[in-house]
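Milestone 3.1: sequence recovery, worked example.
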């Protein structure tokens, strides 16, 4: 297994991504050049004129990058016949890739043997790790990466093993996360979907 990505959240500043190894990074769907041994500094104030990289704008706009965490809530657990899912609202960024779960859960409870794997597949697509599953039969693929996907006008998706200098929530996976880069999240350093409110943010 490759080494984990090391991410440092710099107080009131950017994200430092330590590139001890070559990692796959894309921005708006295009690959970005990376070099082993050369760290990247990614903007998280949403004001950089050199996105996705930091250009020092955080110091000019008075960016408050204080680390925060949503008030703890008990994770919601659903128990099916052969699969269990867990939902942590404190990690959710509200992209609704999970919408088909309701119908699939009903099918699984009704005896559809294929529904458990389809539930697992949907959970695996949850970019933030808010959804997780455990099952005897459904397969969980080995994490690929490490990879950073920087989405246009949206979040940074971390895929593959990673380390971050911020306390992880109980049960939070270390292979998936979505990090804020618009500066508006109330759950820094993680994304909470508020980038949809940002103006002129790409």
């Amino acid at each position: 297994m490759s080494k984990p990505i090391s991410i440092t959240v710099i107080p009131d500043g950017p994200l430092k991504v330590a590139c001890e190894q070559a990692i796959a990074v894309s921005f708006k769907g295009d690959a970005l050049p990376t070099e082993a041994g050369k760290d990247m500094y990614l903007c998280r104030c949403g004001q950089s004129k050199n996105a996705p990289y930091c250009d020092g704008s955080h110091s000019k706009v008075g960016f408050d990058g204080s680390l925060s965490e949503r008030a703890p809530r008990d994770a919601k657990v659903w128990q099916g016949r052969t699969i269990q899912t867990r939902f942590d609202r404190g990690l959710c960024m509200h992209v609704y890739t999970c919408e088909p779960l309701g119908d699939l859960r009903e099918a699984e409870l009704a005896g559809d043997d294929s529904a458990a794997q389809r539930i697992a597949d949907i959970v695996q697509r949850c970019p933030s790790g808010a959804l997780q599953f455990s099952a005897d039969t459904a397969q969980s693929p080995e994490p690929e990466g490490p990879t950073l996907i920087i989405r246009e006008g949206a979040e940074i998706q971390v895929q593959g093993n990673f380390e971050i200098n911020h306390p992880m929530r109980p049960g939070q996976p270390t292979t998936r996360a979505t990090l804020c880069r618009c500066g508006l999240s109330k759950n820094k350093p993680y994304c909470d979907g508020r980038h949809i409110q940002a103006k002129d943010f790409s």
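Helices lie at 57-61, 101-109, 115-124. The longest strand covers residues 5-9.
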